[in-house]
């Protein structure tokens, strides 16, 4: 890492790119995909267990009561994104096909990610308790809000329904490990503070597993071969512009409303992301009789771009936080 830093190359970004390359050449299929899925769930549960051990009950309570922060994040996820998605209809048919636009609008309606938003917030030295509450609230509300927005803003031929098991998954995989971490915190907090490297390994490892799992799914589905290279490049460009606009707006809102540096990091990471894990199952239900592979392609592409972009931002802000004069995230 020190050698790479001399050339301004971040090792974590290279790890993500290497993971994408690995998934492109050796995607997880069949039993291997099941194993990767289980490992990813274990890593995420361990991640939230460690978050619970690192946060004092006072800090966790502060995260619950910071309502201004959560309102801004939810507004970015379920108001700003949908408005930008509707505006993107101007790109049809010159840049996007009808199916790709349907997918782009759908990506704008799904909730924020949980694990990667919180992991990046932790890496960047942001408000982790606030990120936990904001990201979890976005996912819980998204189970109901996303299908409602799809019905209101899109024409779907399938019967829209809500999978209530998603709530149980969030509780069991995220909240239960977090509260267990809170319970065992008095016994392990000092040890974890002394040995911080295992926590960093879980932070970054969980993200790499998510990247590998998501990109493997795309390769197995063969969705990259359904479009011409021009359409794929155009879609990538649209996703990059969409992410850049949202990040710029969330940064501006954080400053205008006087949020602290730690809170602005939460607003950017939780407010600019979209959940592939939540979006894919919903798309399967909502677009049962339509080309689901093409419709979810924008979400899958945006997911990869957001991970790489936010990883770079997290590393940059983490370095700024370590500097004596680092008062704000630029």
Automatic annotation (TrEMBL):
Record-annotated membrane-spanning stretches: 7-26, 32-51, 71-92, 104-124, 131-154, 166-184, 205-226, 232-253, 265-288
Translocase found in the keyword field: no
The entry's keywords: Membrane, Transmembrane, Transmembrane helix
Lineage of the species this protein comes from: Bacteria, Bacillati, Actinomycetota, Actinomycetes, Mycobacteriales
Pfam name, any one: SBF_like
Gene3D superfamilies the UniProt entry points to: 1.20.1530.20
PANTHER family: SODIUM_BILE ACID COTRANSPORTER 7 (PTHR18640:SF5), SOLUTE CARRIER FAMILY 10 MEMBER 7 (PTHR18640)
Organism this protein belongs to: Nocardia suismassiliense
InterPro entries: Na+/solute_symporter_sf, Put_Na-Bile_cotransptr
Keyword Cytoplasm appears in the UniProt entry: no
Name listed for the protein in its UniProt record: Bile acid:sodium symporter family protein
């Amino acid at each position: 890492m020190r050698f790479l830093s001399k050339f301004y190359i971040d090792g974590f970004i290279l790890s993500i790119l290497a993971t994408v390359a690995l998934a492109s050449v050796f995607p997880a299929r069949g039993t291997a995909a099941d194993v990767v899925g289980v490992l990813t769930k274990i890593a995420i549960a361990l991640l939230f267990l460690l978050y619970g051990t690192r946060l004092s009950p006072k800090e966790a309570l502060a995260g619950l009561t910071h309502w201004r922060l959560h309102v801004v994040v939810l507004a970015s996820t379920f108001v700003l994104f949908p408005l930008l998605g509707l505006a993107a209809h101007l790109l049809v048919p010159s840049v996007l096909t009808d199916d790709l636009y349907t997918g782009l609008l759908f990506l704008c309606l799904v909730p924020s990610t949980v694990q990667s938003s919180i992991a990046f917030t932790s890496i960047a030295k942001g408000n982790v308790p606030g990120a936990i509450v904001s990201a979890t609230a976005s996912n819980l509300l998204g189970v109901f809000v996303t299908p409602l927005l799809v019905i209101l803003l899109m024409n779907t031929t399938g019967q829209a329904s809500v999978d209530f098991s998603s709530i149980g998954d969030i509780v069991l995989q995220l909240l239960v490990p977090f509260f267990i971490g809170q319970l065992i915190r008095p016994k392990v907090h000092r040890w974890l503070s002394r040995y911080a490297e295992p926590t960093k390994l879980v932070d970054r490892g969980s993200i790499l597993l998510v990247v590998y799992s998501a990109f493997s799914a795309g390769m197995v589905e063969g969705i990259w071969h359904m479009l011409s290279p021009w359409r794929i490049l155009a879609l990538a460009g649209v996703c990059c512009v969409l992410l850049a606009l949202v990040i710029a707006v969330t940064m501006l809102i954080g400053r205008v409303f006087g949020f602290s540096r730690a809170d602005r990091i939460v607003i950017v990471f939780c407010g600019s992301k979209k959940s592939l894990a939540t979006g894919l199952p919903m798309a399967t239900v909502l677009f049962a009789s339509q080309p689901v592979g093409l419709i979810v392609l924008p979400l899958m592409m945006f997911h990869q771009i957001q991970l790489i972009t936010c990883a770079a931002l997290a590393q940059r802000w983490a370095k700024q936080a370590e500097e004596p004069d680092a008062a704000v995230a630029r």
